[in-house]
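for ur thesis appendix - Acyl-[acyl-carrier-protein] desaturase. copy paste whatever u need, i formatted it the way the template wanted (i think)
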Amino acid sequence: MMSGAARFAQCGTPEQLEVLHDVEGDVAAEMQAHTERRKLWFPNDLIPADAEQTAEAEAEIARMRDAARGLPDTVRVAVALNLLTEEGLPHFHRLISTHLGNSRPWAAWNRLWTAEEDRHGCLLRDYVRDARLFDMGALERLQFQYIEAGFEPEWEQDPYRLLAYTSLQEKATQVSHANTGRLCASIEPMAQRVFAHIAGDESRHYQFYRAVFGAILKRDPERALNSLLKVMLGFAMPGHAISGYDDMSEVVRRAGIFCARQYRKIVDELLDFWQIGNLGSLSATARELQDKIMKVPARLARMADYQDAKAARRTFGFDFIYNRAITA
Ligand SMILES: [Fe+2]
Ligand SMILES: [Fe+2]
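the 3d part is after this line
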């Protein structure tokens, strides 16, 4: 059994490899459910760029570009950060591959997920290019630098941490895309459509990852709780290697697009979904971890209060929007 399990995953303790092998049926079933839930769309469905383009499509793009001039710079910063986060896809494909291995159904999920995620970066890039949102060269340099810098979370080869992180992160990106879209809606409706399509995908990915992590939690509660606690306390969005990331995320925080309060809501929702507070038959160590995890929301609330209290109004500048001053 153990040698069979070892074929399926490249990271993890022997016990973890066995559990990963054990939940393969759940992974396959969740993948099936995911494929049935999804409505596949393509960037060209929203922002067409065909050789034989209709006059209406061209007029729509001209309208979009005209309306996009009215988008405030705070929203542009959020769009840039969302785009850069999506373009970090090579890092995530690699992390999933190295943590979950190259055998079915994990590898099949990684490919399906990557194919879906790839459309997000494509669509956002098509949008910002056709709507003329940025100093595009400056944005491209940031993207290049982010891909080159890499994303190396300290997961210590723990596949459970990858699954806990992706559960949180898919929901966090859903919230970030949906809120960015909402701020665009009354000014430039295509931006809202773009973000709503992406947020819908993130929501379905979130459902997949939380279900798979839930299956692991049932089989291996102590190790799963240990991984979950570490990830929840150290959670950071993936783009922190992007230069200027702290200022970008601070603008996004101040605009109410994504902040510690929203992160706390995500944590609450997941603790409730996994019924962490009600897990029974736990070892003494697992009970301790359970207690610590149940205290995370209060800790996040204190952190949000602290961030709000210390945030004095200040001015930000980003070269991808020509260093225009943003005061927030
Ligand atoms: Fe995405
Ligand atoms: Fe996603």
